[in-house]
Amino acid sequence: MEMDIREWAQPVGDQVDPEVRAYVSSLVTALGGTSIEEHGRYVLGDDAIAVLKDIRRWIKFYDEKLNRLDVQRILAESNLVKGDLLEILASWTEAQTNNKLKFKVSLGCLELLIPLTWPIEIEDQLMKVNHHRHLPYLRLAQVEYKRAILHHDTAKILRTAVRIGLPSMAAPKNDRTPRDEGIIRLVLYFFRNVALIEQPSDLPSNGEEVEVSRSATIDAFHKQDVFQLLLTVASSMGDEFAKEDVIVLDILFHLLKGINPEKLFQDDQEHAQATGSEFKALLQKENAMLAGYKRHAPTRHNRFGTMVWIKRDNEKVTTVTGQKALAGQDTAFSQMDKSKKWNKPRHRGKQNLDEKDSSQFTKRVSLSSSARKNLRTFVEEFLDSSFNPLFQHLRKAIEREMERIVEETPMQFYYLISWFLQAECARRRSAKERKEKLALVKGKGRLGELAELDEDEAFGLVASVLNQETFVLLNRFLQKGQDNKEWKELSAGMKCFTQILLTVQEMALSPLEEDQEIAENIQNRIFYEESTHDRIIAFLRDYKTQGFAYLDSCTELAHVFIRMLEQYAKENTDLQIRSRQRARRKQRKAAEEDGVVAADPEDVNVEDEIETVQQVSRERRFEFQRFAARFMTQSSINTFIALTTYHADLTPEQLKRAHRFFHRVAFKNHLSTVLFRVDIIQLFHRMIKGPHGLDPQSESFTEWSSLIQQIFRKLIKRLEERPGLMVELLFSKIPSMMFYLENGYDDVKEKKIRAPAELEVKPGMEWDEQLGVAVGVLINQNKSDDINWVKGVLENAKEEREVWQAAEVSRKETARKALEEAGVITNEPVAEDGGDDEGRGWPSIHVKPDTTTRSIALFKDNKLRLLLKLAGLVRIGDIDDEDASWIIPSTLPTDKIEDALKLIGDHQFAPPTYDDDKTAEDFLRSKAAAERTQRVKKAAFDDDSDGPGSLSGGEEFEFEAGGPTARKSDVAKKRKLQRKKTTSASDEDEDALAGSEDEAAAAARKARRAAKKLTDLEKRRKIKSDMYVHSSDEESDEEKDRAFFAREEEQRKNAGRNIMKAVAKAEKEGAREVVGARKRKSTGGTVEKGRGKKRKVTPASDEDEDMLGQRGDVNEKEDEIVEISSEHSSSDSDSDIDPEGESPTISGATTTDTPLSSQPRAASSPAVSTAKSNGDVSMKDAAREREDEDDAPVVRAAVRRRGPFVVESDSE
């Protein structure tokens, strides 16, 4: 039985349950209809609101709950939307806005429109028979719904929807009820559904796609105030609206996806020129295609069957059928390849299973002139007022993973960031071009106005997506997409990252310094992380069959990233990056196998942490050539080759991207060998010579032709140099093969042998016990042969010492006898054989290994080296020198050698045992690890101890006393000089001072120190605030200057009095000693009882030294060394001042207030430089003199006029 086409299109009885159809159809009839009495206008039924609710219940509880589409199919066939719902909405005019019944009915119609216009996208594995039966019909029905909504005859349906939501939006956020929030979401979802519905590409149409196109949607949104509503909601996001951000994002995505922002900001003339250029390029491409077709067109015998033989190498013949075999040799071979039976299976790809058609953003969309203007106005207003609030709110919601965030939200978020950033850059370029044109037309009069416009339109309009939080979230999203193989989401993220980089590049060229600084900081943050570099390379390497969208995104990102990174590295030669690679840590098990155990767990952790820090610090300096070498791998080459295979369909920008990459590989990085592969060479040849190559009239043909020509020249030259390359053309190149083909020899990397870790015995053991540990370790490792060799070395050394010592004794005895025979008498005794006193001239003994294995062990075996060091042997040479020698030094006594030899033998035959089942290995540790641990502990102790900015009382201070230009305290210097005075005294004087010190004196000193510390504390508290009060540019402080000069004057007076007092005492004591000497001479050498009592050492001046040196009868006691300090102001010196305050006058010495360091020196002291006597001493000279005094105290000895010998008494 034949079925008519109309009957096939109409639903048959078994498609929908008749009872369901009857119920739903009766509800549609009861809703209302046209009335003759009302002149054909739509009239509601008696219970329209209840009917609307019943229909909504049928959709919810039958279609959605049972996963069927029967009710929606019935409603579509009943023409509910176009015939009833839209008519009801059209009947609610603006004059009836306050009519509550009309509002309620309109709201019910809007609630019913939402599920009817909701996109129907069901995964293939969940499709049922009903879905396959109803889905095509419902998708076409939704297109009709959209056409009726956008182009209603009597009313603006979208405007009516806006009026439904305005009362709820006008209410303050805190006063809104859940019903108000629901109404706002209903209105926004309705706009989303209208923007989302498109003509299905796989279903027939009636030729009226223009009425439901993107241009028609944009025009309707503009005319019916939908754009204004979206701007209101988006600009108030976070203040008046909170949960509507995802819906607004969805609307914007479906409005803007596929639209080129560059064309959006072109004026009519530019757009016309661009359109004309595109049309011209299409015609040119068509002509090139026809020309290539004519070159290989079939012959006039194409109506007949053809079978030809093709001769190959070695006289082999292949049969090929078809007219194409007659066109030429290349075509014949191509036909032969196509006739092969095996076909490579095509990978469909897992990524296509769950993708939704509505989420695709790669399809390009063209707009009409009016739609382009309307959308441009909306985008400009959105960037000015709504971009930052909306995207900042969305970023926070995505970070917190709010419930309203759905699966597609992050992808839409990053795609729209990319779109709006590109639109902002296009708008700025367009404004700049308009400014230049106006400057030419109007002159320079309006440049100021346009400059102010640029100031107002800074990049702060998109600042919400150029912060660190967005970068962190984007990196997380990219890593998640790569791990989960979500290629569509990953493509959107890469587009976003690429556009951020391009925007930062535009910011760097901005005339505003603030934008330039922000661009510099952003680049530093992006390029600082080495993980970002690795991620970009991974995107490029991971391309296999992800589709052209992923291919285009990853190659564009790699192209932009490497160009900007190269430029930034040139401008910042000291670029630092942070590597998150883990440092290689030493394995504890391997160390235990070698017999090395760390001192304690803390030592191991500290060592590992230090090694990690050192590894990171070594990797922090960025080297662009190293990054480029990782970037130019075979996988990256394959990705760009895959892009180049689409050369016939690529844009000039995409062709330039591939060209720049291959040029970088072949000439900048000198890796042309990696391009020497048969399929790559064939692709390059086909691009230039055809068939289906590049158009010779295109812009990029010349660049590609030059590049490919140079690559072929390199290939021919390399084939002449390396004939083996002919075989390697069939394969991809591994690094070792690339090195051989480039240089002609294999890359042999010499492994540098490193010395083992130096060991030591844990502290707390005597020398003989340490030898026992070293011997025990070698015994446990079955290295008794090494112990015997060490014993032999020591035995030989002992014998050599004995022979040398006997020879030395014999030589001295022979020399003594020769002197006696010559008449020279000497009382020098002959040393006995074996005495240690002869060891000062012992020669060093060189230790030679007996075998090659022993020589290697002396370098690699750190246990053997430990035993040699404990025995007293010394290694001469660098740490990593394998040929370094061992010697027995001349300073090693013979008895030490004998003791080591005996102990090693005893421990070998009776190995030591230890408590707690410990072995000898447990007492070894790494010397380097121990030193690092000690440094860390010392650093921690220094951090915890009192520094220069803190006191022992626990209070810390920010500043030093008086700032960096203040003079330092003299307390430490005085104590140092006093210590040097004490050390210069005799032992008897020290004993006397030590005996006179008692507990009372110690308590007094302690009290003085505490009082001084308290005074210093109060002083520094004042300084802490004084440093902030005074301005840094004040040249002087009169009060501080007066105090300073007063202190200087007091010091000069004290110094002068001390000097005069010391001179007077010296003269009196000298005169007394002269009289005593004369008396001793007259009495025949009798000595006074009090002769043994030592007098106190007193300072003396240079003049005093000259006066004392002129007395010819003064004995050695008068020649005592006297030391003088120019700043002698301690309590001892104060006690020497005359209580009457008078300074004694001495002939030959002038009393003055000038310190000693500033007085003119006598001619008898040529080593002391002469200072100015008429004025104060400069600060530099005083500081230099004080430093000299710290290094060595000023010592002046009395000039000795009598004899060079020191005598103890006159009797001698």
UniProtKB/TrEMBL annotation:
GO terms for cellular component: replication fork protection complex. Residues 986-1000 have a biased composition (Acidic residues). Keywords: Cell cycle, DNA replication inhibitor, Meiosis, Nucleus. This is Topoisomerase 1-associated factor 1. It comes from Tothia fuscella. Residues 41-310 form the Timeless N-terminal domain. InterPro entries: Timeless, Timeless_N. It comes from the Eukaryota. Residues 341-350, 973-982 have a biased composition (Basic residues). Residues 1013-1053, 1064-1076 have a biased composition (Basic and acidic residues). It is found in: Nucleus.
